[in-house]
User: Fold these one by one.
Assistant:
Number 1:
Amino acid sequence: MDTSRIFLIIALVSTGVFLLQFVISIFFGDVDVDVDSDASADTDVSSVFSFKGLIHFLIGFGWTRFLIQGASWVSYIGAFLVGIVFVFILWYLYILAFRLQKIRKPENANQLVGRSGYIYANRGNGNYIIHTERDGAIRELDVVSGSGKKDYATNEKVTIEGYKNNTYYIG
């Protein structure tokens, strides 16, 4: 068996394992994450030297070595370097994925005073529902018109001017 077939087999098997891991993680999830109490992700060297790291290395090494014909030492070094690049791309993608995890940071009710929002619905008698940013996301919030203005238009920009007795007031 010539060496190009060996590297083709390595490339095909590692790509197949990668695709199987990908499909399993899409449909069944991947719960192999270490998070500390301060919500910082654990991305040490062990995440580089893992089964997934080995698979990524073999994908890069196998396909590069198969595509570069010839058995010179330069082709092996090039394939090795491409494999290492694949592993570090995987490691960097893990870091980016951990950054995407959004930790909910509850805000105190008084912290919303001064924040703007948009009228979503009129509930009548000066009561409205607005959309405003709260806890890191756009949320609905029940408010009361404090100025006596009874007819805010839908999508009209308003500012939360006060909070008293579990009620938010807009101007």
Number 2:
Amino acid sequence: MRLAHFSQNLKSKIAMMPYLAKILLYPVKSLDGVEVENARVIASGALQHDREFAIFDEKDRFVNGKRHAKINLLRAQFALLNRTISLHIPGGDSQQIFHLDEERQALEATLSDFFEFGVRLRQNSLMGFPDDTHSPGPTVISTATLAEVASWFPGLTVDEMRRRMRANIEIDGVPAFWEDRLFSEQGDLVSFRVGDVDFLGVNPCQRCIVPTRDSYLGKAYPNFQKIFAKQRQATLPNWVASSPFNHFYRLSVNTQLLPSSAGKILQIGDKVDIFPQ
């Protein structure tokens, strides 16, 4: 029996060849993302250009998907090297292109007209504007997880679930919920490496209202959070650390960077390794 169990575990490990399949950056918090082939990890742990900008109202509050479903109607494309954003405003016939540094006032005026209240764009090149400032590293999810979760909601595609979850790095070559190996019991961090970049897995990300809404229209999916939590609990692998789950509306993993990896580059196809605890 022990030999058979060992053989099964060995086959499982051989079958799993985790690799970095996608890198997604969100240059302006809550707007559309951009898929890239590589990304630099800066000293804070964030990916360069990710959530580098955020929109704020006149009371210095985030204008984001949590507070304003209307933001889902905006379509944005980014040219990172040129430092430009192309915006398509609902009802408009064409895209408007703005330089993020040189034409910021014009961009703010356009966004203010769209939201119908004054907004401004703030920049943080050192860490961006992550939801979790204690773990500002890239959020991690697997392709198989996105497919599994999408299957819980008739009519939702894998790409739509990807847009709703807004994770930075996506791992393939693994089964659903593989990324749950990247956290342990509360207080215990898990070391893992992507290419030659060393990270610490912290905890499963607590989700907000954003995934409940259509990423293009802002319309809520009925009972999304209730369905999600029920299915997440039912499909939670028995090897997953349970203490981080004070509720089951959690998906993807928050991370921190080991200081020695600051400035290194993540590249599509990078091998992913988890270090023994």
Number 3:
Amino acid sequence: MAPGIRAKLDRIGRGEPLRLLDLFSGCGGLTLGFVSAGCVSVGGVEIDAHAAESHALNFHPLKDRSAAPWHAMSKDILQLKPSSLNHLLKRPPNEGVDVIVGGPPCPAFTRVGRAKLREVFQHPEAFKQDPRATLYVQYLQYVQALKPLALVMENVPDILNWGGHNLGDEICESLKAMDYRCAYTLLNAASYDVPQMRERFFLVAVHKETRSDPSFPVPTRKVDFPRGYSSSRNVALKNVLAQSSDKGSWYVAPPAAPANAPPAVTVAEALADLPELTDHLHNRDRRGARHLNGRVPHTTAPHSAFARLMREWPGFESDGFLRDHVTRCLTKRDYRLFEAMEPGEDYPKAHVRATQFFAQELEKRRRSGARLTEGSLEYEELKAAFVPPYNPGKFPNKWRKMAADEPARTLMAHLGKDTYSHIHYDSGQQRVISVREAARLQSFPDGFRFAGTMNPAFRQIGNSVPPLLAWHIADELLRSLGITPKARPKLSEDPRKTQAKTRVA
């Protein structure tokens, strides 16, 4: 057995917590889930300055002044070598990290075959040989240098069918050569207590010397997903399923939810206890950065198990005030439409409503004697005050009003530019979601802080792995390694108990 692996197994055998490194960490969704399960963070590697600062703010605050400035700095993984972590690990690199997690941004692997990928990975200056493979290669180089006991990788489902190319199997093939047992699947966050339908690729690998096998958590929720999610999953898995039938694959089907599992956590369960926001209706012309330094008090008690968890998450409890319950100031045109839209309506339907409102106002003004001819400046200005300029045929998903009794649709990094994809279900508030509401939908607790202003915070949230899903994955991984994790929140009955009851019966 390799000395580094033996030292790690001995250390965790003495009850010491697993030491976690998060690559492409963002603000720390994966880190939060794993720390909550019982791991301890040694740091994150993240190039975005605001996200790196958020990660440090939440997991490596300034009380450790010798290391905290390093944690808060943006770090380019192309320049930062594993040996650079020696001063943090305070031990040889191959003994200092037990678990690596992260989601490298997905490059274009359309024509990179397995032989080519191995060649790229083994080259000492891989990024000069094939920039498409750069970030994937850096992740593997960290695994090779640090020799963790286990790792988790997250990405978009299209990684399995990138131009007909399955990168998941190639990652596993490279990891197998480094003595890891691998498996990957697609998991949806809504199946694990997150109030958001978010489908992602997850790969789990464990070193063969741990004598364990990779596995995935049993869902705690039974969710009826819209047709679009099923279609996207089928497209992503097209080549995977074809491969597994003839030459094998590391793909495993996602675990099924127990038949009696409760339905998904809804948007209303996640947000209804948060204070109403209407100031935007009186400050419509406000422009400029929105800061996250407010003190909006909670005015109602938690109304659901999920809301209670968001306020009482261990280590990230709310102090009773929301600092980031801020939203965008838009236009009267948009507020009018937000109020009129029905839950679940999208941009094409909003555009129809806007056209109707414009026609009504146009007729009203013409009856009053106004001469508004089509094509005139006055006509076009009036139309712009009622009708958004986007082509409804090209932007069908640009706007969507959330339904209170369903989980939200996927939050994207594009939230940093606009939040029309998540219009609040309460028509009286006539607005898009706030930063804190986006964080709730992603399952970040109220005590979690985001660095920067509103737009960077939205981007960090949209880029994150939901911490509650990460907690479930960490819980399963620790159990597979023979470690008792910290208790997961009981938002529904533990599916393991349900399965045990079924087997006894």
